[in-house]
Amino acid sequence: MSTSPAERSASIPAHESSAMARARELGATVLGTTSPNPAVGAVVLAADGDVVGEGATHPPGGPHAEVVALAQAGGRARGGTAVVTLEPCAHTGRTGPCAEALLAAGIARVVVAVPEPTELAGGGADRLRAAGVDVVLGVEQAAAERGALAGWLTGVREQRPYVIWKVAATLDGRVAAADGSSRWVTGPEARAEVHRLRAGCDAVVVGSGTALTDDPHLTVRDTGGAVAGRQPLRVVVDRRDRLPATARVLDDAAPTLVSHAATPAELLAELFDRDVRRVLLEGGPTLAGAFLRAGLVDEAVVHLAPKLLGAGPSLVGELGIPGIGSALTFSVADVLPLGGDVQIRLHPTRHTGGGTRTGGDGADGGS
Ligand SMILES: NC(=O)c1ccc[n+]([C@@H]2O[C@H](COP(=O)([O-])OP(=O)(O)OC[C@H]3O[C@@H](n4cnc5c(N)ncnc54)[C@H](OP(=O)(O)O)[C@@H]3O)[C@@H](O)[C@H]2O)c1
Fold first, then answer.
1. CATH architecture of 5-141
2. How far is the CA of 288 from the centre of ligand 1 (A)?
3. 100 catalytically annotated
4. 164 alpha carbon – ligand 1 mean position (Å)
5. Considering the domain 154-350, what is its CATH architecture?
6. How far apart are CA 45 and CA 215, in angstroms?
7. What role is this protein assigned (predicted)?
8. Per-residue pLDDT tens for 105-147?
9. Using an 8 Å Cβ cutoff, are 295 and 158 in contact?
10. N vs C: which end of the chain shows fewer Cβ within 10 Å?
11. Tell me: the pLDDT tens digits for 72-99?
């Protein structure tokens, strides 16, 4: 279950590194469909190094990534290598143990990014090694932890969902105009990205202020406006029951929770109990401020529009910061042009209250 420093720095051949990058991509393709289980990706290489199988975790009760990739590889898996983002499980849950499936397929080597952190599913590497399989743990671990496994790992380590705060603002940080109008701050490409972000989450959260002002639908839709088959839980935090029965969020296009949670931590506990592992916090500034003050934002996705408004609500409300030295700080993960707008993805490095995060990946802690 644990890794030695030697394992963490283990170098692997280039074709296995490419397979690991592909496994991370595969895991990301099933985000929003696997919770409470991890979104794992797996690639099977034949003995000659050819990619012969690819897989990602199916929804709960369905096969795990390794099993999907092995099924695709068939007999070509014999003597080959399995490259997986998470250590194969050794226990029988709703599906059989993946370690046994790898042994049955005749896999000779297993390359793993993240060692299994739970006692329940641990022991896969030991089981494989005991059967003579060459197992390498901790390969490109940080990249896998920051990626598709971040939500699940936050759940294991902190018993709460991973929170992505998404906000669209003008160059002067306004999320709406002085008259309250906010459609549309950003262009169609940025709005399409919001739907992609929603699809990768288990719940989308707004405060009652946003629900009352904008009357958002909060569903995942394609560019033509068609509502997707799988929808995240829509959540409005409305402690004073101000949401009218006519609110669009209360239609039957997707499940909706109207929460009375007093604090962000209470809300996250409520969502965690419903198997939510990834939350998209869509605002507005008051609720975002409450999450930031509580140190409960793991990742921020800011869509900046090249516009100025000069007045209107700022992208975040009061943070209780007395001076520049206490500013909440972030590290920039990446910057992406989105049509005429720009997307900046960030991780908090220091939150209010002075706490400092190491690694800046929002998935702190060892394995
Ligand atoms: N451009 C964007 O990305 C974007 C996104 C969202 C919103 N907006 C804009 O933001 C404006 C609305 O701002 P807002 O700040 O009123 O919206 P908000 O943050 O969505 O809602 C604020 C309300 O949330 C409730 N709330 C629930 N839990 C809370 C907690 N733990 N701490 C604080 N409040 C909590 C409070 O009402 P109760 O006490 O009644 O529960 C509070 O009044 C609109 O103009 C909207 O267009 C823009």
1. 3-Layer(aba) Sandwich (3.40)
2. 8
3. no
4. 16
5. 3-Layer(aba) Sandwich (3.40)
6. 50
7. Converts 2,5-diamino-6-(ribosylamino)-4(3h)-pyrimidinone 5'-phosphate into 5-amino-6-(ribosylamino)-2,4(1h,3h)-pyrimidinedione 5'-phosphate.
8. 999 999 999 999 988 778 899 999 999 999 999 999 999 999 9
9. no
10. N
11. 999 999 999 999 999 999 877 766 789 9
